[in-house]
Amino acid sequence: MLLLAACGDQSGGELNVAVIGDGPMAEALAAEATSATLVKRGANGELATGLATSWRFLDEGDALILRLAPLRWPGRDGRPGAELVAGDVVASLRRPRGAAARAMLADAGLTAKGNVRAPINRVVELLPRPPTPFLLEFLAEPALALRNRRGVAYPGAYTQRRDGTSIRLSRRSNAATADAQAASIIIDTPDVAAAVRQFVARDVHVVLGEGLAGLGTVRAGATGRALIVEPVHGVIGLAIAPSAAASGGRLADPRLRRALLLAADGELLANRFALSALQAQARLWDGLPAPQDDRRLPPGERLAKASTLLAATGHGPAQPLALTVLVPAGAEAALIARELAASWVPLGISLEMVRQRRAGSAVPRHDLALQEIVALVPDAAAHLARWRCGRAVPCNPAADRLLRDARDAGNDLATRAAAIAAAEAALMADPAFIPLLRPVRWALVANGVSGFRANPFGRHPLGRMLPPGARAAVSD
Question: Domain range for residue 339?
């Protein structure tokens, strides 16, 4: 019995996962499993302890105190290295690795030298300026994983290696934990038709969709009960190309951009998909107070206003406005473009669809681009900041001032929400982006898979799942 105990717990099996989409989801899932953060995500997308075993807010949320777990950095030959101390956290947050980490630290208010302190060895003090109610959510992102001075992340529950186009994750310990249930995880990125075939054949246990792409194929080819669709924070819509909005561009006149905003009918598009979880969204951020402008008008009146704005610029059925829209891969994006084109014909707007030929190739010239923007952290101010002056063309200096007001409000949530709503309204007065739909994440989950839980964040740590028939050694 002693010999058996020494072998450890080899339960967990191998979880096979397919990721559909051209974005960073596969890499992000691997990073979440292989690197450690101060705070992490649980199976429900909720915040859970990570390298920090506890935390508490002080001064009405203006300061955060985290207590570190008694851990050591890995040393050579598998031996324990130096103790993990608060100074390591300070050093890691002061030298962010990559643009994503720098942007998150800025949104979290942690870019100044005095924002991160180490009062004693295992206690970290964060003083975000300005404060944000989403500080813990930012700390849970893999982009802010703890790194040493050489840029090496503190190890997570799994190791990673490449196997052709696959990512293979292997549990570091024989013993399962809440964050490392499966002994190994294989992440592949096949096309959606192949993923459905593999799922039906039970060769793949979970298929994760990064956006709308592939959703139609999945609905047609897989059993309905296996499909889970989760609305998430962000927006699907049309980005105005900077070249089109610049002087001499087809959409340089703000009246034209406003006309497109009023003519875009998200309800029509949502109904075309006939999927209850896919909803129209007339705001850049779902859940903001109803706008006090003509976006609230019935569709017919909105079209009439759009027609008036077009006519004032010399466009209409007799003098059409010819536009091109860049559409990502997938039949679903093409469907949106075709429906928009058909609905805009009576106004005298012709919409030609163009696609990028392949990854890495030159982007075709276009006036609009269909985009799915998902917020990693549910922070409306950080989401709207992508349209600030210096980041987007066109932009609105009044919206920038309101977003600064929202940041300065810190944890005064009522003042913050009012400033965010006003900033969104200002961005829509001269739009750089036309909202259409609320984005979704979707998944196919095989019978018998445990640990997958639908949640409002669309976040599913792979280490918390078990394949069918595998024995769970640890429960949450």
Answer: 234-437
Question: Phi/psi zone of residue 13: left (φ > 0), alpha (ψ -120 to 50 degrees), beta?
Answer: left
- Residue 151 domain-assigned? no
Q: Rounded to an integer, what distance in angstroms lies between the CA atom of residue 38 and that of residue 75? A: 20
pLDDT digits (tens, 9 = 90+) for 115-164: 999 999 999 999 999 889 999 999 999 999 999 988 889 999 999 999 88
Decide which of 87, 112, 144 is a domain's last residue: 144
> For 242, how many CA atoms within 13 A lie in the half-sphere containing its CB?
7
Is 418 a member of any domain? yes
User: In this structure, is residue 219 part of a structural domain?
Assistant: yes
Do residue 168 and residue 140 come from a single domain? no
Domains in the chain, number:
3
In whole angstroms, what separates CA 188 from the centre of its chain? 20
User: How large is the C-alpha radius of gyration of the chain?
Assistant: 24
Two structure tokens written together for 286 = 């779902």
Model pLDDT, residue 6? 36
Question: What are the Cα distances from residue 217, in Å, to 53, 62, 125, 426?
Answer: 43, 48, 49, 38
Q: Which of 242, 157, 231 is nearest to 474 (CA)?
A: 157
Q: Which CATH number fits the domain that encloses residue 99?
A: 3.90.76.10
CA 335 to CA 398: how far, in whole Å?
Answer: 35
pLDDT digits (tens, 9 = 90+) for 180-215: 999 999 999 999 999 999 999 999 999 999 999 999
Task: Assess whether 140 and 228 both reside in one domain.
Answer: no
Quick check: 174 and 116 in contact, CB under 8 A? no
d(CA 92, CA 144): 8
Question: What is the structure's pLDDT at 10?
Answer: 54
CATH number at residue 207: 3.40.190.10
Residue where a domain terminates, one of 144, 169, 189: 144
Q: pLDDT digit string (tens) for 143-155?
A: 999 999 888 899 9
pTM: 0.91
Q: How far apart are CA 265 and CA 414, in angstroms?
A: 30
